[in-house]
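Entry type: protein chain
Record version: 2
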Amino acid sequence: MSMISRSRLGFAVAFYLIFSPAMAHESGHWQSAHQMTEAANALISSLDAEQKKTTLFPLDDGGRTTWSNLPIIMVRPGGLLVSDMNAEQRVAVHMLLRASMSSQGYAKFAGIMRLEDQAHLDALERLKNNSDSPPIRQAFADAYDSTNYAVAIFGEPGQEHWGWKIAGHHAAVNFTVAGGRVGFTPTFLGSNPMVVKGGKHAGLMVLPQEGQRGIELMQSLSPEQQSVAKIAEEKPNDVIEGPGRRASLSTFEGLKASQFSPGQMKLLKVLVSEYVGNSDFDTAAAQLALIENAGWGELWFSWRGPVDSAGRFYYRVHGPRILIEYIRQDDNHDHTIVRDPKNDYGEDWLGKHYEEHHPSMEEAMENARRTVPGK
């Protein structure tokens, strides 16, 4: 293992040991819940009456489980768009994000938002070089914007149960507060470009470790272990439990973590911490405690595609209290999702089962066509 890899491992293991399951509390008022409540109420107080109608909903509103990672031209997210906010309100949104996530998680989410401006410039450059592009290409280019993310708050912050979400292209996260506890699933993060190739930001990555953590774990396996973990030579089209497809993975697959060596188990914990650590510290500690109580050995690791850091591959970590999926969509585009199979949207705490809703790709494309002038 290289010096850089040992350093990464050290930091991630330190995270796991510092924020150990002993820190997690099943009751009581967590710091995360308190600071989220204050930040959410600050945002609400900055809204006018019409904006509140667009932003505030009952906790059991169906829009809470309706979200998408597609561009806004294809699926209009519910809630108030950042583009329809003034500067004070935009600051409040970022304060709410920082109150809800770790510095790592906030940097990733804000970076994905900023990548939309890069995507806009890239799309305009392609249009300039192809004068015969259909009008819908221009509409897609115009949809790439760092302010095309929508915020919605469900229930009343400060009450025992409430939640909020922010959703847009390549980034959607759903938070639940229940009795002082905080849930952060489902969370979808993606990046395109995965690595900025040109301009003054060349080399920038907003999700720098997600793919690498999977590669490190897969490459640590023996040939015999890899043959069990690798399910297929080709990757799927996308993450399988994406928006509207929760609970579509009913069985575990691949290599069970109980078969890992101590070194491989450390790498698994590094990988899981990369995703869980996007949430604030006590929220992350509590989720790690749930995983540990269910048993780290009860996690399963599977792989599809080439075992190549530059290739198009897919991996999954799946167990009773965590589901992580990562896919390299193409050479410079990736998607991730994190779910808690038992407690997405806080349903275990709230005693309620939630159904997800998401339009089909055909419906999403038809929505896009409707926005094109002259159509």
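Comment: Residues 3-370 form one domain.
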